[in-house]
Amino acid sequence: MRKFYNIFILLVFVGCTRDFEEINTNTNAPVTVQPSLLLRQVIYDYGEQMSYEGFTAGNLLGQYSTALDFNLFDRHDLKSPQLGGNPWPILYQNLRDNEILLNLSQENTAFAVYEGPARILKAYMAATLTDLYGDVPYSEAFKGNAETVTPAYDSQEAIYLDNGGILNNLELGITALENYTGTIGLEGDILYEGDLSGWIRFANSLKIKYLMRISAKVDVAPQLQSIFNEDNYIGTNMQNAIFNFTDGEPNNFRLARLRIGDFNNYVLSETMEDILKALNDPRIERLYRPIGNAGDNTFKGLLNGIDASTGVSVADYSLLGTIFRENTGLLDANFMTSMETHFLLAEAALKGYISGNTESLYQMGISQAFEYWQVPLPENYIMNNAALENGVELENIITQKWIANAINGYDGWIEYRRTGFPQLRTISASLNNNIIPVRMPYPAEEEALNSNNYAEAANKTDGNSINVPVWWDE
Predict the structure, then answer these.
(1) What is this structure's pTM?
(2) Quick check: is 23 in a domain?
(3) d(CA 63, CA 56)
(4) Staple partner for 77: which of 72, 139, 415, 466, CB 3.0–4.6 Å?
C-alpha cells in the first residue's frame, strides 16, 4: 500500500511539473507594459507623491511651515519620518519604472520617441535623490530584476558628471528628441501633451539648475552661456513642466485628503512670516490663512521645532491657505518653471557666469512667480519692497526663489544649503544640537537590505550623520 502511494505521488508530481509553465501562464495578460502607461505613471506618481513630501517634510526643513504635533522631523530628528519625511522609496520606485521605459525605448524602434523624456526624467529624479542624500546607489540600481538587489553606492560627483549621469542624460535626452524623425507620437505625456519641444526646453532649464548647483566645484560658465545664448529654456509660465491637480479626489493635492486634524498640524513658520511681512508681500494671503483668534486680517507664524509637550493653540497661528485644501484645482505638481529658471539665470549673471542683465532676469522671475501663484503683483513691489539693490543681491534672488517654490520645500532647503539663503532660524527645541541638517539620512531599510554597501556609505558620512555636507556643498 505504501509503495502504491509513493508511485501515485511521483506520477502526480511529474504530471504537474511537465506543463507547469504553460498551465501557470495567463495567455490573456500582456507580456510587456505599454510605454505610454509607464510615462504617465512615472510623471503622475512622482509629481503627486513628491508634491506631498515636499510640502510636508520639505517645507519643515525649508522653514516654510511648522508642525504643531508629530513633529520629531521638524525638530530635526530626520530618522523619524511621520507625516512625510521618507522620499527614498518614492524616488527609487519611480527611477525603476522609468528605467523600464528607457529600456523599452532603446529595444524597440517603435518606442524611440520615449527615449528623450525617459532620460530627462532620470536626470531629474536622480538629481533630487543625490541632492537629498549625497552618495547613493545609482549605476547598479534600478535593475534588481536583472542584476543585483544590493547595488553599490556611487559618489555624487560621478552621478552628476560621469557618462550616464545627470548632465549626460540631459544632453542625450535633448539629442534623442532633436533627432527623432518617427511618426509615432509621445502618448501618456501629462506634462507637455506630446510636444517634444516642451521637453527640450524643460531639459535646458534643468541643465541651468544643475550646473548652478555644482558651480562651486566645476567651471560651469561656458555651458551656461551657451544655453543662455540659445534661449531655448522655459521662458513663460505657459511652458512650465507641471500638471494640474483637481479640486476633488482622486487627483487633488494629497494634503487635502488628510483628516482635518492632520491638515491643521501645519501652520505658518516664523521664518516665512518675517520674510513676507518685511516685503509687504500679498502672497501670504494665498499661502496661509489669518489666525482664528483675530477678527482682522492678521497672520502669525510659529518658530520651527517646538516641543509638542509645551502645548499651543492652533487658533493662535496661521493655517495653510485654501489652495492646499479646498481649492487644490488652482495648484500644480511642479517639476520646473519659468520663475525658477529666471532666478537661476539672475544668480548666474550676478556671479559672472553669463552676460545677461541680473536685474531684468530677477524682475522677470518675480513677475512670473506672482503670476504662477495667481496673485496680482503690487505696482511698486519690484522697485521698492523687493528691489534687487535693497541689501545683499544674492540673498534677494535666492529669497524670492525660495518664496516662489513654496510647494517644493526640499528645493528651498537644498538651495539654502548651497547658498546660505534665506537665513533660516535656529529652531525651538532641536534634537540635532541646534544645527540645521545638510543632508537626509539613509533610511533604516537600506541598512537592513543593503548592509555592506550601506556600511561603507555610512562610514563616509560619519555614521550616516545629517550634518555631513554633500559633494557640491561649500
Answers:
(1) 0.92
(2) no
(3) 11
(4) 72
